[in-house]
Structure formats: C-alpha cells, structure tokens
Specification:
This protein has two domains: 191 residues, Type I PLP-dependent aspartate aminotransferase-like (Major domain) (Aspartate Aminotransferase, domain 2, 3-Layer(aba) Sandwich); 128 residues, Aspartate Aminotransferase, domain 1 (Alpha-Beta Complex). The strands form two sheets. A seven-stranded mixed sheet has the order 1-7-6-5-4-2-3, sandwiched between helices. The chain has a five-stranded mixed sheet with strand order 8-9-12-11-10, covered by helices on one side. Helix 2 crosses helix 7, helix 9 runs parallel beside helix 12 and helix 11 crosses helix 12. Strand 2, helix 3 and strand 3 form a beta-alpha-beta unit. It has 361 residues and is α/β, with parallel strands linked by helices. The chain binds pyridoxal-5'-phosphate. Pyridoxal-5'-phosphate binds next to helix 2.
C-alpha cells in the first residue's frame, strides 16, 4: 500500500506519480491515447493489483467496472447472483434481462447447495460477500468449486471486505470488482471502480471493454484514490474495531430488534466469515423497533454521524436502505445500514444511543 505505485527512484524525481492531464501522448509508446491508459491510473492499478494478487484496471465508478465485466457475458448467457446483490448491479442485470441480453438466476448466496444447483448450465456466478446491505456471507471457496465443476466463470464484488480482509483471487475467483469509491479511496471525495484478474486473457478482454465502452476515470480521481489506498490498513483497523464495539452495544439496546454483522458470534455468517476473512469489516446493518418513521427518526436525530448514502469513508454514515426504490422488497423497511468511520467510538455510541433513545422514550 505504501511502497508500490511510485515513480522511478532518481534525483529530484517526485515521490508520487503526478496527475497526468493529457488526452494524447507522443507516438511510439504503449499508451498513445488517454482512453486506453494514463500514468496516474497505472500507479493505482499497480498497488491494487498487488493487494488483490492480480492485474488491475481502473474505471470511472464501481458500476463502470461492473458493467464492463457484465459486458463479457455471451449473448443469451446465464448469470447466477444473490437476490441481495448491491441494488445497482441487480438493476443493471434486470435491465439486461429485460432487453433479452441474458438470463438471471437469483439465489440465496449463503446457501452453498442452492448456489451449486444454480451453476448447472450457467455462464457466470456473481458473488458479493458480505452482501449490501443484508450482510450475508458466501462461502467463496465452495461457490468457486461448484462453478468450476460446471465451467462457470466467477466474479466477486470485494467492496465491503477490501483485499486486506478477503482475497477472492486466491480462493479461485476469476475477476474481482470494487467500488473504489468506498474503502479503497476512503474519504467520500471520489468515484472510481476497479477490476482485477490473474488471467491475461480476461485482463485483455476487460481492457478492450473499458477502452471501447469508455468508462474511464479522470487522472485526478486516480490520484485521490491512490492517496486514500496508502492509509487503507490504518483506516480499516480503526473502523472495523469501532464497528465491532457498536455492533455489540446495538444488540443490547432496547430500540434494536436485530443486528447484522458477521463479527457477532451468533450471526448466520460468522463461522464462514471467521474462516474466510481476516476481519469482519466496517459496515453493519440493524433493524429498529417500530416502522419506517421510527427508523427515519433515528437518521434525523444523529448529529456526529451523517445521514447519507455510501460507505467506506472516514466518517460514519447511516441510512435506511429501503428509501431507494431499487432496493429489494425483502430488505426490511426499518433496516438501517451503518458505515462505521474512524471517529472516537464512545462519541459515536453516545450519538447513536441518543438517537435510538428518541424512539424508545
Ligand atoms: C457493493 C457495491 N458494489 C458496487 C457499487 C457501485 O459502486 P459506484 O457507486 O462506485 O459506482 C456499490 C455502491 O454503493 C456497492 O456498495
């Protein structure tokens, strides 16, 4: 994270790859035109590629990376995905299905038998673990084994876990995707996506898809994302420690009916997560007593915590996921997603407990 993606060491060379603002490059080199590549992206790609254990490509957003990966599915192909896949990915798959481009098979991603059965005759298995926002854990090694038996390509959205907690390529996954907007960049100031693979053939296909679909990031975004990645380990260490404390305290609060966090020993995904991940991450979800109004009241009452969408930044964010029309109807109306930041945990708890008290008192 700290040492990779640096310019050559020579007298007076800068320590950081600069923001390279040029739409074209002198002829004769591998870049040629800025829709193909840019030195500012390449520095970030070197770091994220090394972290995930493959070759990385930068995209304009997580959805641009996801769309380019979906574009590789053959016409009429079958994609297997969790019914609780991130709402943007799910919506795109639904649109592609409505256009007759592919068929989607929705599964319960933490049920290995269901995943294995759905892989028969499929082209791609799309894994997200933990899922956003239901926080389900997929047994990635078991899913990859079932996919391989059936000649199915595997993709894993590793946004929630980050490469520090979970390494899908090492578990046999073919392509990892990220919303780098979240933990990787980490400061809620940039949108970017990444795709990483060990396969040169897939990398070349994705490079072509990126160049021709044109979902490329700006060089300043790449600079900011790399600046964020440099401190990923420190931010993650603090935010996931905070998340564990808040999860435990939420369980004991009278206004909370259920907490979903794989770090809790009685969480449905705990055993698999403990085996597969080296930490449980910084996002959790919980359900409050009452209905929509009570859940919204908690979001309105917090002061240190920010009522906003997104996740993975240094600041703690809360939102009711069902306020989005794209969110699945089986996500409870009163489910609040909490992306835990790096603030003082007692300050966070005082704020959250105070907001929860407003709906119990
Ligand atoms: C798990 C996951 N994947 C992908 C995305 C999409 O990323 P972006 O918003 O950078 O396009 C998100 C966004 O929230 C996400 O949570």
């Amino acid at each position: 994270m700290v040492a990779a993606g640096r310019p050559l060491v020579e007298p007076d060379a800068p320590l950081n790859v600069p923001v390279v603002l040029s739409s074209t490059f002198h002829a004769g080199g591998p870049i040629a035109y800025a829709r193909s590549s840019n030195p500012s992206w390449e520095a970030l790609e070197e770091v994220v590629g090394q972290l995930e254990g493959g070759r990385a490509l930068s995209f304009a957003s997580g959805m641009a990376a996801i769309s380019s990966v979906l574009d590789l599915i053959p016409n009429g192909g079958v994609i297997v995905l969790s019914s609780h896949t991130y709402s943007g990915t799910s919506a795109r798959v639904r649109d592609l299905e409505a256009a007759g481009r592919l068929t989607a098979r929705l599964v319960t991603i933490d049920d290995p038998d269901e995943v294995a059965a759905a892989c028969v005759g499929a082209d791609v298995l799309w894994i997200e673990s933990p899922t956003n926002p239901a926080m389900e854990i997929c047994d990635i090694a078991a899913a990859v084994a079932a996919a391989r038996t059936n000649g199915v390509r595997t993709v894993c959205d590793n946004t929630f876990a980050t490469p520090l907690l979970q390494q899908p390529l090492e578990l046999g996954v073919d392509i990892v995707v990220h919303s780098a907007t979240k933990m990787l960049a980490g400061h809620s100031d940039v949108l970017m996506g990444m795709a990483i693979t060990k396969s040169d053939a897939i990398w070349t296909q994705l490079m072509r898809a990126r160049t021709l679909l044109g979902g490329i990031p700006g060089p300043f975004e790449a600079f900011l994302a790399l600046r964020g990645v440099r401190t990923l380990a420190l931010r993650l260490e603090r935010s996931q420690a905070n998340a564990m404390v808040l999860a435990e305290r939420l369980v004991a609060h009278a206004a909370v009916t259920r907490v979903r966090y794989p770090g809790l020993p009685d969480d449905r995904g705990h055993a698999v997560a403990a085996r597969q991940m080296s930490g449980f991450g910084s996002v959790l979800a919980f359900e409050t007593v009452g209905g929509v109004d009570d859940a919204e009241a908690v979001c309105d009452a917090v002061r240190l915590i920010t009522h906003a969408t997104s996740l993975g930044g240094v600041e703690t964010l809360i939102e009711r996921r069902r306020r989005w029309p794209e969110e699945r109807a089986d996500i409870p109306e009163n489910l609040l997603r909490l992306s835990v930041g790096i603030e003082n945990v007692d300050d966070l708890w005082a704020d959250l407990a105070g907001a929860l008290d407003t709906i119990t008192n």
